[in-house]
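Bumping with the actual sequence this time:
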Amino acid sequence: MRVRFAPSPTGALHIGGARTALYNWLAARHDQGTLVLRIEDTDRERSTPENVEQILDALSWLGLDFDEGPVFQTTNEPRHRAVIEQLIADGHAYRSTATGDDVKAYKEANGQDKGFRGVPEEEGAVRLRVPAEGATIVRDLIRGETAFQHVHLDDPVIARADGTPLYNLAVAVDDLDAGITHVVRGDDHYSNTPKQLLVLAALGAQQPIYAHLPLLHGPDGKKLSKRHGAASVQELRDAGFLPEAVNNYLSLLGWGAADDETILSRDEVVAQFTLERVSKNPARFDEKKLRWMNGLYIRELSVDELTARLEAFTGRTGLRGAVEISREKISTLADFWPLAGPIFDGPVDDPKAREQWLGEEHRAALAEVRDALATLEPFDLASIDSALRAVVESRGAKPKQVFQPIRVALTGTTISPGVFEIIDLIGREETLKRLDAVLDAT
């Protein structure tokens, strides 16, 4: 098996493109085949070095390695031009100055369902000659077989008047030259397939096996777009998702178990993956489900590994203690700093939390807490737990009436890791300092 992932570098690698890349990778690895990375950069204006780097960066983050490439389609242009001249010489293509209006007029005269047939000229764009009879059969592992009757197909343009090869010619030639046996891509390319097969047929080449993946939809059943959340791989990374969770989730969208909540290692997916099991129906990308799965992956990491990832993500060091007391409460790496940041940088300013939990009646409880902690020995987690619960009992209060004021005094917010754990982590001196700042405030 030789498969190719062939993105157009016109921007970041979107989630749908990432799934296509993953399915190519899985197909190649399952069959011990070869994965070729081809950059289809015929759109010169949008195929910038920066956009190419975004594609490579996204594949690297996802851990999708390739065996050959990246090969840039534009470097094969001399070969494309030679094929065009060969097709003209063999009578499979011709030059034509026919415009869109000419095509429209032809159909009005011959019937709208009749494919356009041009008259060979000395100059003009190059059109591929579609056979007068028969059909081009697209054999697809997902969609089955579809016959495109030649009588309905226009002679497609395969090169501009200046000889510049167009997409469908270049793709077909590149697949032929690279020995591609399987083409796995989004079904938005399906309408291009018969045109590419006609090129291959004119060259006397066998067609590869196709697998056109249904496009991803959002939870509302509409085509996936920015309104559904993160749109690209880089946005998922910046939002704190783990690549292994993203790979797991994307692998299930249209393939695998009946649901999209199955935890599978990469090796398990490789062992089970086949293109024949991909569904014909669009799968739904739900960022909430991805968050849930990501949270499971986070909690499976060791404290040391999660600390390393969070330190790289936040650009901060010395996070291990905070990671240890926060890991059960976060679903993405981005959740960590809003939760644990006040441990390091001091309380945030949340007027609503301050008004609700640092009123006069709460300060009395904080004063008792301060006194209990000031003389507490030993100053460890178990002793802190006992001392604070004793304050609750002595005041005849509910735990929340004592613990929430402590939380807000120490962090400025009502959402944080456990109060006992925070006190143990920041130590007696810093705890008393933060309590005093509240008690001394007028």
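The tokens above came from a reply further down the thread. Residues 419-439 form the longest helix (21 residues).
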